[in-house]
Amino acid sequence: MTRQAAGRGVPSLRAWSGVEWALAAALLVLAAAAWVVTSVVAMPDMRLGILAGPSPMGGDMAAMSVGLGLFVLTWVVMMAAMMLPAITPFTVGVRTLLPAGTRTRRVLVGLTLGYLAVWSALGLLAYAVVRGFDTVAESGSTTAVKTGAVVLLVAGGYQFTPLKRWCLVRCRSPLALVMRHGPQASRGPVGAFAVGMRHGGYCVGCCWGLMAVLLAAGVMSLVWMAVIAAAITIEKVLPRPELAGRLWGAGLLGAGAVLFLAPGLVAM
Q1: Which residue ranges run through the membrane (predicted)?
Q2: How many domains does the chain have?
Q3: Cβ neighbours of residue 154 under 8 Å, at least 6 residues apart?
């Protein structure tokens, strides 16, 4: 970690206590378990999206017949797999900044569960979007790829907006969260859960474009999950997040423009 990281509330790795290393290890073990579970329960037809080529989700609707409940359950596990590594330094930073008497396990669990609850609720919207993509895929592979290209263009453009930067700053800074909401988080697990939801809201505002790309590329593809999770983690953890965000944005804009003008590159 750098001085910049320490300044926003994330302590240097060398300054982490044994308890903080244990907390980080626990979060990463949970993330690893979630990756394993996702690989087991992911529906095969949902590993491909509208950007993958000809009618990846069309034709056989059996994959979607599992319904909303199973999709959201799988989505919750996916969000744990993708987001827990990204929020590990943040959670350690929050623990460091909270008053000594309030750094309880229940408070930290409440913060984490509140954060994941927001991403889990987003699964309802994700299900609707995926069903819409499924309908688009039935219209033909060229239409599907062009629709996916529009998703890339929108997501890439969002990376350059002031709202993206505003959410990213708040999503990265434990210091800002504790200064604004520390007393509420310190009251107990209920208050911590509410504060965790606030943090999750900032993160959704920061990362929804990248998650839309995942829906178009293959919502349950382990490869694309890893790519998007890596991009999100880099923005949240490493220095110069705005530069990284602009690089992702430029890449998405370029890929979206190419696929929109030449869908035949993947459509058949």
Answers
A1: 21-42, 62-87, 107-130, 142-160, 207-234, 246-267
A2: 1
A3: 209, 212
Containing structural domain, residue 168: 3-265
The confidence band for 5, taking pLDDT boundaries of 50, 70 and 90, is very low
* Token representation of residue 225: 């999950």
DSSP letters, the chain, are --HHHHHTT---GGG--HHHHHHHHHHHHHHHHHHHHHHHH--GGGG--TTSSS-SSSS-GGGGGGHHHHHHHHHHHHHHHHHHHHHHHHHHHHHHHS-GGG--HHHHHHHHHHHHHHHHHHHHHHHHHHHHHHHHHTT-HHHHHHHHHHHHHHHHHHTTSHHHHHHHHHHH-HHHHHHHHHHHHHT-HHHHHHHHHHHHHHHHHHHHHHHHHHHHHHTT-HHHHHHHHHHHHHHHHSS-HHHHHHHHHHHHHHHHHHHHH-GGGT--
Note the pLDDT tens digit of each residue in 84-98. 888 888 888 887 887
Q: What sign does the CA torsion over 109, 192, 24, 31 have? A: positive
The pTM assigned to this predicted structure is 0.82
